[in-house]
Amino acid sequence: MEKNKKSRRDFLKTTAIGAAGLMMPMGMSAKSYGSIMGANDRINLAIVGLGRRVGAYIGPIADPKSNVKLLYLCDVMQSQMENAKERFMHPNNNIDYSIKLEENFFKVIEDPRVDAIINATPDHWHAPGTWMANAAGKHVYLEKPGSHNPYEGEMLLKSREKYGKVIQLGNQQRSSLESMDIINQIHNGVIGTPYTATAFYTASRGRVINPEKAAIPDGLNWDLWQGPAPRKAYEHNTWDYNWHWYGWDYGTAEAGNNALHELDVARWALQVKYPEQVLANSGKYHFPDDGWTMYDSMDATFKFPGNKVIKWDGKSRNGHRTYGAGRGTIIYGTEGSVWMDRDGFKLYDRRGDLVQSSESEDGEGGTQLGGGGNMTSRHVRNFFEAIRGKEELRSPIEEGVASTLLCHLANISSRVGDQMLKCDTRNGRITNSEKAMGLWKREYEKGWEPNF
């Protein structure tokens, strides 16, 4: 624990970097420098956070055309590092070099050879891990939701502006060929003027364990896992997936966990940014005595300038497929409508007759844990090419922050009693409730507040 705190202190003393990697570091040979991205277009990469998403990155990293070298696999749980290394080093992946396992995030970003990281940590680490990596000169592929609270979204925009690094949010449907096609058609008037979108997610999650104080699992660095969150004693089963549902210290509930994907598609289709009103109706209706402390069902409405509306229908533990699938987005326009999800789209005219459809062959995961598929691979490769200046980012952090803010606003409305929130359409800030605005930012463990 003391080692990690010292590393963080040393790092914070030297983060006036910004230009890390632009000059040959002292003591680095020309041969070593030749492996840095600027010298031969190769990107030296690290993955931080090796949970359920790690398998989605194997394809784009192992592909020789990506010209990527994976230097580090980093996680606070020893077994996850070992499992990830075994998966990456499988003979089918043709990775013929060694990959270093490193528990300490700060050691990874202090390495001048690292050009970029994939940040797949839990939600409370997303934004702090990203702005610290940016300060160390690293580009970041940032898994959703990208931030734990609205304030952190604002800090990500400041980090992008200050350090000039590429930050791509992992809302991979922005890299779906079918989604890009039909969104382009919508923007060109195929359904007239789009005015409403319904985004939905349906799952049948079961009972979760009631957490209770327990010994820290073997191999887990609990202090580093907590990172920017105020320190708490370890409780059984917290570090693994169920942190999503155990209070607001670490997770962002189902809105941040899954709504982000569909709300992003809805906002993309309607070409809206910040809402003027937000209202959530939410509750915990299933397994009332289990450890789940968030809502498990939510209907939220976001009203935007121009009388455009996005509706969110999220059911975490009721598997009834109201819309015929586990997740997706329906866009309504003056001359027709579009039904779309990760498997493709269906275009209907105003009478409701099907006029066009397209099915995806990406095989992207839907509601199962982890997901992955060609859509994610394409999104990660887009990140690599954007670093090289060869492609435009499909989900730059400016777009990601705007979509994630919808999740945060819905959560805030829920937490203050399903209150109607009025927002400043220039930045999304809440204007009618000091109580709600009090949830704009979190309390940080001392020493972890952003310092820029």
Blueprint of the fold:
Blueprint: H1 2-13, H2 30-33, H3 37-40, E1 43-48, H4 58-62, E2 68-74, H5 78-88, E3 100-102, H6 105-110, E4 116-119, H7 123-135, E5 139-142, H8 150-163, E6 167-169, H9 177-187, E7 194-202, H10 222-226, H11 253-270, E8 277-283, E9 297-304, E10 308-315, E11 327-333, E12 336-341, E13 344-349, E14 354-359, H12 374-387, H13 397-415, E15 421-422, H14 434-437
> Beta-strand level of the residues, as a percent range?
15-25%
Kindly report the name of the CATH homologous superfamily of the largest domain. Dihydrodipicolinate Reductase, domain 2
What is the fold named in CATH at topology level of the largest domain?
Answer: Dihydrodipicolinate Reductase, domain 2
- Sequence of strands across the biggest β-sheet: 14-13-12-11-7-10-9-8-15
Average predicted local confidence, pLDDT: 91
List the helices and strands in order. HHHEHEHEHEHEHEHEHHEEEEEEEHHEH
Give me the count of strands. 15
The unreliable regions are 11-36
The CATH class label of the largest domain is: Alpha Beta
Summing up helix and strand content along with how strands pair, one would put the structural category as alpha/beta
**How many separate domains?**
2
Shape: globular
- What separation lies between the terminal Cα atoms? 25 Å
**Fraction of residues in helix:** 25-40%
The largest β sheet comes out as: 9 strands, mixed
Number of helices: 14
Question: What is the CA-atom radius of gyration, in angstroms?
Answer: 22 Å
| Assigned CATH architecture of the largest domain | 2-Layer Sandwich
